[in-house]
Amino acid sequence: MTETVQSSAGQVGRGMRLPRTARRAQLLEAAQYVFVANGYHAAAMDDIAERAGVSKPVLYQHFPGKLELYTALLETHVDELVGRVRDALASTTDNKQRVRAAVEAFYDFVNSEGEAYRMIFESDLRGEPAVQEAVDRATSDCVDAITDTITADAGLDAQRARLLATGLVGLSQVTARYWLSTDRAVAREEAISLIATLAWRGIGGFPLQH
Asked: Most buried in the list 14, 76, 168, 194, measured by CB within 10 Å?
């Protein structure tokens, strides 16, 4: 299935047809810009359609309303963050490097273009159940992934491993956002090394279990 769109500066030109999946991705990209710039409540579907270079009927063909569009976009960002953390943990069998890779995953996500992290960690729509569920999943799924690794390697029970995993996620997420808010006053590599060292000195105190 393809669709035709109107022209918009820097976007798909008039008459160009896109498959449905490509159109959806284009609409989400436009929505990302508008939601981050204006917040959910001030964002308008008109603005998103204009940004994407489509008519409002085309936008509504994919998303029945602003909340559905916002939630779909939020879910894609949550999936991206969780995927980064899981990939980081799977990238090595050296636990010290795993800790660094996990910290780095949060820093790179926060530092990525489009400021996707704002929709997860600074959403102005947390009172909406679907949004809160997605925001909670961003933390819980990352904690789950790290818990599994700590449980297997440190021989801790699930509750203690989960507490440590929550600490690592919180440490990584909060410091990454702080680092960005200071205009990256500390070089990226050094910032990641500092936080990874802090985390490892705690987690590394638990001996490997085989």
From this structure: 168
Q: Which two tokens stand for residue 135?
A: 């925001």
Task: Answer positive or negative: Cα dihedral of 152, 189, 76, 124.
Answer: positive
Domains, the chain, in order of start with CATH, read 2-64 (1.10.10.60), 71-203 (1.10.357.10)
Phi-psi region of 12 (alpha: psi -120 to 50; beta: other; left: phi over 0): beta
- The predicted-structure confidence for 167-180, as pLDDT tens digits, reads as follows 999 999 999 999 99
Q: Which two tokens stand for residue 179?
A: 């680092």
pTM score above 0.90? no
Contacts of 166 (CB under 8 A, 6+ apart): 139, 143
| Residues sharing a CB contact under 8 Å with residue 143, sequence separation 6 or more, in sequence order | 162, 165, 166, 169
